[in-house]
Amino acid sequence: MQAPDALARLVGDYLATLELNPDLGAQQGSMRYALEGGKRIRAVICLATAEAAGVPPETALPAAGALELVHAFSLVHDDLPALDDDDERRGRPSAHVAFGEGVALLAGDALLAEAFRLALSYSSTAPARELADATLGMIGGQYLDITGAHADLDELHRLKTGRLFAASVGLGLQAAGLPAAEQGPWRAFGEELGLLFQVVDDILDGDGYAALLGAEAARGLALAAARRARAALAAIPADTSVLGEIVDGLVTRSV
Amino acid sequence: MQAPDALARLVGDYLATLELNPDLGAQQGSMRYALEGGKRIRAVICLATAEAAGVPPETALPAAGALELVHAFSLVHDDLPALDDDDERRGRPSAHVAFGEGVALLAGDALLAEAFRLALSYSSTAPARELADATLGMIGGQYLDITGAHADLDELHRLKTGRLFAASVGLGLQAAGLPAAEQGPWRAFGEELGLLFQVVDDILDGDGYAALLGAEAARGLALAAARRARAALAAIPADTSVLGEIVDGLVTRSV
């Protein structure tokens, strides 16, 4: 079993040498810029899930890469003036500041289409179908965020953050070819990760759940999600120790 | 064999009743708005190709719908202030004027993801893979358009317009399950349609090829593309009469 850090390096190398569609020409530069940096959490979850489910993590690299491309697409579009209007991302100028709004808009579009190309590397349509559903859920969450149409933060983040985290487990299972009948407890695990990630994010940023509930109550929410995640792992008849490490890392992370 | 008008009605009914991902919630309204109207040329080519290749056109409806969703996505994003900044589309306010820039941006993203969901209705990954490659080529063309990095209009439109027209034939063949070894002359036909469409578009709008070459020379270019398209059809061992009608319609259209 490879540790989370080793899996992060694996996906980092994969993305750094990823071939993009040659028709994209110089547009590729803005896409690679948007893909640099980041913690690769979704990809690491996908690779660790696949390895725990019985295949070499390399088998899941196209699926893990697809998740990171969808994540990068969502950040590039979120940062645009029409949405969050953020000038900085991962300590650097955001894509539209570095390349202009038009190129950044197209870079996001191309990252999404390339994500599907990667998810379509498998002989089954299942990974790409799961990616499409998760992406649509995430966009539904972004819509709730900008219109304020959500009843509460849970409804918002179940979609905006949760769908892609759940799919990180789901695509790992699909890449491993685990039969649907055996996926239940794995998916229950995946359902907890988005909330766990988001609450800790809000505590670190002092907004969202932390602003709404106070840091202490938010910390309690994160610990409860981590507890449920570990309980789900305990129900899986496989060595899920690396997934357990990932849960620990999500609880204790400081960046 | 169904006539082009009947095929257009078929795809119009399909799109009007298309179920979108329920997680999209009220965002669906902006997507349906962006899908209304339009000539459905790409979808009709796809359905007519599938029927000529030996299956009922209904078999190709998800593929044809996917092409229209990709086309609608590209129009919604092209019309945004960051790209062409067009306030009107199909005689109505463009999506960002009707719904705001943020919602329009997300509507385009969601149309693209839904397009893949449709193309993934088939048991083979081939239709979705072809859609991904065509979409990436189209985006590469949009990039050339906004950066002015193309050597000539042919290079620009081979990508920006041509890729999705060629894929309209390609997805019809995939939906029909035509073996790759038999697809050659069909694909040669599909390669001519983008240029034919674009040159006539420019003649009607008085820009592009018409502005560069004059209306008469542009007309000659369109007729030459139509001639090559008909020659390609003549090499196909099937009843391609409806595809011939479509070529005639593209040459003589006035809107």
Roughly how much helix do the residues of chain A carry, as a percent range? over 70%
Please report the total strand number of chain A as a whole number: 2
Q: Multimeric state of these chains?
A: homodimer
> How is the main sheet of chain A built?
2 strands, antiparallel
| CATH-level-2 architecture of chain A | Orthogonal Bundle
* Strand neighbour order, sheet with most strands of chain A: 1-2
Low-confidence stretches of chain A: none
What's the N-to-C terminus distance of chain A? 25 Å
Biggest interface = A-B, 50 and 50 residues
The helix-strand sequence of chain A is: HHHHEEHHHHHHHHH
Count of helical regions of chain A: 13
**Rounded Rg of chain A:** 17 Å
Count structural domains of chain A: 1
Tell me what the structure shows.
The structure is a homodimer of 255-residue chains. With 255 residues, chain A is mainly α. Chain A has one domain: Orthogonal Bundle (Farnesyl Diphosphate Synthase). In chain A, 71% of the residues lie in helices and 2% in strands. Chain A is built from 13 helices and two strands; from the N terminus they run ααααββααααααααα. Chain A has helices spanning 4-16, 27-35, 41-52, 61-79, 95-99, 101-119, 126-147, 153-160, 162-176, 184-205, 208-213, 215-234, 241-252; strands at 88-89, 92-93. A two-stranded antiparallel ribbon of chain A has the order 1-2. In chain A, β1 (88-89) and β2 (92-93) form a beta hairpin. The first copy, chain A, is globular and about 50 Å long. The two termini of chain A are 25 Å apart.
